Amino acid sequence: MLAERRHQLILRALRSGGPTAVTDLSEQLGVSPATIRRDLVKLEEDGLLTRVHGGAVAEEGDQPFAEVAEMRVAEKDVIAAHAAAMVADGQSVLLDIGTTAYRLARQLHGRRLTVITSNLVVYEELADDEGIELVLLGGMVRREYRSLVGFLTEDNLRQLHADWLFLGTSGVRPGGQVMDTTVVEVPVKRAMIKAGEKVVLLADSAKFPGTGMAKVCGPEELDAVVTNTPVDPVTRSSFEEAGVEMVVAGKVQA
């Protein structure tokens, strides 16, 4: 079993059953206790769990898609509308995993575009829109988080190039670092950044500073940030120094 698959199953077991012993996880996954201990060390380093005597407990924060989709919908829609206006007909758009990308997909109906995604909710939203050429990336299905991840997704992205990448995040640090709570999604996000001509971060007010232990990228890898509120002066300065355009709900920060 691949390590990333074990990590997913370990986190699922912890979230569904609470604190879980190493011996129980070893039996459930059919691997040695030593392998489980190494997995727990890695997941703790990534901020996804806390090791306790004989086992581990899950950290809060990596919420299922259905829960996150109900949060700050109006803010996400303001951001999505501005992002959609940035794209010209005939262009290609790469949409990240996450709920803000889904809100953006809803704004793209009736357009003549190519949309590339590993976001299953984006795929479902646009599947019947015949004006949109839809490319679904391959990979391992994360059912609760409605996404595809893993080396197959990354390999697919290495074969593609998009005019725009619209990237989501769990949090943005004052230095401009883009963070994520979900470690298995980080390599996919990094591969998306390499595949995008213009990289635009979509981040509502809760994402400054937000959450996340795993770094996706620094500000130098972004072209623009679209948000719904002015960001704090330190974060704004970090983006400006990196040449990142700051866009706030229809107006550009001077």
Question: Layout of helices and strands, plus pairs?
Answer:
Blueprint: H1 3-17, E1 20-21, H2 22-29, H3 33-45, E2 49-52, E3 55-58, H4 65-68, H5 73-85, E4 92-95, H6 99-106, E5 113-117, H7 120-126, E6 132-136, E7 140-142, E8 147-149, H8 151-158, E9 162-167, E10 171-172, E11 178-180, H9 186-195, E12 196-202, E13 214-217, E14 224-227, H10 233-241, E15 245-248, E16 251-252
Parallel strand pairs: 4-5, 4-9, 5-6, 9-12, 12-14, 14-15
Antiparallel strand pairs: 1-3, 2-3, 7-8, 10-11, 11-13, 15-16
Tally of DSSP helical segments: 10
The biggest beta sheet is recorded as: 8 strands, mixed
Unreliably modeled segments: none
Q: SSE order in H/E notation? A: HEHHEEHHEHEHEEEHEEEHEEEHEE
Class by SSE composition = alpha/beta
Helix content: 25-40%
Across the major sheet, the strand order is 6-5-4-9-12-14-15-16
Termini Cα gap: 51 Å
- Range of strand content: 15-25%
Question: Mean pLDDT, nearest integer?
Answer: 87
Q: What is the gyration radius calculated from CA atoms?
A: 19 Å
Compute the number of strand runs.
16
* Mass-distribution shape: globular
Structural summary, described in words:
This protein is an alpha/beta fold. About 35% of the residues lie in helices and about 25% in strands. It has ten helices and 16 strands. It has helices at about 5-15, 20-30, 35-45, 65-70, 75-85, 100-105, 120-125, 150-160, 185-195, 235-240, and strands at about 20, 50, 55-60, 90-95, 115, 130-135, 140, 145-150, 160-165, 170, 180, 195-200, 215, 225, 245-250, 250. An eight-stranded mixed beta sheet has the order 6-5-4-9-12-14-15-16, sandwiched between helices. Strand 4, helix 6 and strand 5 form a beta-alpha-beta unit. Helix 8 (about 150-160) runs parallel beside helix 9. The radius of gyration is 19 Å and the shape is globular. The relative contact order is 0.12.
